[in-house]
Every structure is written in C-alpha cells, then in structure tokens.
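Hi R.,

Here's the chain you asked about this morning:
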Amino acid sequence: MRHRAVSRRLRSNEADGPSLQSKTSDGERWAYSAAPEGKLTWLYDFDAAGRVVKRTQGLTMERVSQLKNGQTKAEVERMIGPSYWSLRYPFKPDEVVHVYRVDDAALPMCFYVGYDASNMVTSTGMQEEIRSSLRMSRPC
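And here is the predicted structure, written out as tokens:
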C-alpha cells in the first residue's frame, strides 16, 4: 500500500489527514490520532518508495513506559504520537505539559509529559482518568 492509498482510506476516518508527519531514516512516519476523546494513535511507517512497512499502536502502556527524562519532544512524538492537549501549571511556569489518554487494561489513564523550554522531557506522570457528570471539562 502506498501513501495515497493509505491517506485516502484513513481520511475517511480522519477528516484532516495525519496528525503528524516526520521523516525517518528509511522513509516517513505518519501519526493518526483519535484525540481528543480517543485513546488510539496509529503510527504508519513508509519506506522510501511510499509503501507501508509497519503499522503500530502508539498509545500503549508498554510504549509510554519507555519514555524518560532527557528525551526530546520529537522522540516522544515518534514513539507515541502527538498529545491530546497541553497546559502549564502555575507552580512550574517554565514547563509545558502534554497530556495523553491511555488505556491500562480496563482503566482509562491520563499520561503526562513535561517539557522544558528546549523541548526536553523533564517529567512524566500518570493518574486514573476522572470522568463524572460533575466534571464538565476534559477528563485528564
């Protein structure tokens, strides 16, 4: 399957096309995120001729557990895809936190990645997703 065929098929599900496109040593990687409400990010790797060589679910507990301080934002996005949204905490004004939604077996989880001004990971964290009729904002 080539870029156009994958793009055409995926665009029927994803109106805006890939959430993220990046060059790799062998070709390209496209990330299709089901955010904001979805907990799936499909990563498609293409070879230099534009053929799909691999399809991977990015948002898994195994993949998020491999992230660590000192990695770049680009490395994180290559591993798990783009984030659900981002925020700044008042007590850490120099850190931008990117938020992901991940399933851990039956429990929906919120996964957080903090970046400094140079887009290096400074912190990660996880908590159970909070969903209730009392909370009208984002679940994470």
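One quick note: The CA atoms of residues 64 and 80 lie 7 Å apart.

Cheers,
M.
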